[in-house]
Amino acid sequence: MSVRVPRPQPGCDLRSLPLTPAEAFLLSRIDGTLNERDLAAITGMPSSAVEESLQRLHELGAIHLEGAVIGRTSASPAGPAHRPTPSPSSAAVPPPAPPPAAPGGVSAAATHRAPAAPVINPADLAEQVDLSPEKRLRILDLHQRLELLTHYELLGVPEAADKKQIKAAYYALAPEFHPDTYFRKQLGSYKQKIETLFNRITVAHDVLTTKAKRAEYDEYLVQSRANQQMATMMDASRDVARIASAVDASAEAAVVSPAPAAAHPAAPARPAAAPGQPPPKPSSPSMPAITTKERRELLARKLGGALRRPSSMTMQAVKPPAAGASVPLDRPSEPGPSPESARAAEVLKDRYDHARSEAARLQIERYVALGRGALEREDFASAANAYRIAASLAPDDEALQRACAEVQRLAAAALAEGYLKQAQYEENHERWEDASLSYVKVCAGRPDDPAPHERAAFTLLKAGSNTRRAVEFARRAVELSPEAPEMRLTLARAYAIVGLGKSASGELARAAELAKADARLRELVAQTREQIRQGKPI
């Protein structure tokens, strides 16, 4: 990969550029100091994607690329090219794993979600309805993917589409799912699915053709994608495993690779024997040279641990008894390692430990530097990713572990702010399932804030997906703010839904006591009490 250093282009109007979300995200990380490898590390994007995005940003005039390009050479005469061999301790470490791929059929630039392909239930296809098999499959497939598609994707238009294009797409798609199209047809369970699809298509049209609503929706898309990108970057588990493996491989390469010939001076030639005389004996015994194969064998035996198996040279000397031959009862024990092999194993172990320590040190320094740079830019997700990788390589470094924990806290708080904006939009548009998931993520970054806990409980109740968990969030909200009547009203609703009537009545009584001085809150308590009495607490 190249090591060019991209720099922002002064005076460029970024809002006017047709950037994909991936390009916009990468552009936000360019500060004139990070090279391409660093950008791949802190964004989690594949190296090839970073290179392609930088090239496009350069062509659009958003950035300027400086520095030499390594790995791209001009045409040269035919012949073997010289390639420098990197030292084992500085072996390249793969960049962090790329973010998940986009769903099938949807542009990767449009979304970072990666759901599994829709699974069609054969019973749905076999249902007796007045629809062709192709139409059934079309309805089932689109209905299952509906919550994963943006308004633009649903209508099949680019995000830069103008109002005329959006209307044309709507009028081409809407008739296919308009309920009147299926008048007097037996639809069975497909009837509700068709109505849901048509309503969503209509909402997409109305939002995208209204200037203010479209601007709000576009901001929501940017925020939700940024949240997803941050969450992906903060999960460094894959990167930690990859880099740890690379460090191990670097150390093993330093042990297994034979040393250069120049490093070992040649032994002095023995004097030739005089005619008729036996050859002279060596003055002292010398250690036999260890071949590459034997180095690997020694390394495989856990670098100096108990050598449980004889070496390959010993195995050649051990012959099985001939067929029918008697075997003595007192068999001699297997020969242990020779002193030469034991000393060689100890040397290899020391060499491996040193090489691994050096490789780990280099990577720790690299990722701590990346983390500090990200903190200066207030890019907390990238900082958290870098510090977590560095801390994984030095588990006994207490100072580094404390720094990593603090950066993780900052990143969680920053991510919570983004998820709060996302949750509020989803709640305002009655997307209860999505809103509840977003509020739960806010709570993870704000464990002592009662407001998101109350909203998480409320939206979970509205979604009807996990009422028991809604009770837990409502209880936590009351613990954090016991004097707030709104918190107790939500807890009362949750208790009523799970069948804890007495507990619900108790919370209503406490809320009424706290709301004595506020007419609005007293009215809200009365409404909640009546809703619970009618069996409609939410």
Automatic annotation (TrEMBL):
Q: Where is this region: Disordered?
A: 73-112, 262-289, 303-343
Which top-level group of life is the source organism from? Bacteria
Q: Where is the composition biased (Low complexity)?
A: 103-112, 262-275
Alphabetized SMART domains for the sequence: DnaJ
Q: Which InterPro entries match?
A: Apopto_cytoskel_mod, DnaJ_domain, J_dom_sf, TPR-like_helical_dom_sf, TPR_rpt
TPR repeats sit at 364-397
Q: Where is the composition biased (Pro residues)?
A: 83-102, 276-285
Task: Report TM segments.
Answer: none
Q: Which UniProt keywords apply?
A: Chaperone, TPR repeat
- Which residues does the UniProt record annotate as the domain J? 150-221
Name of the protein in question? Molecular chaperone DnaJ
- The organism is Chondromyces crocatus
Which lineage?
Bacteria, Pseudomonadati, Myxococcota, Polyangia, Polyangiales
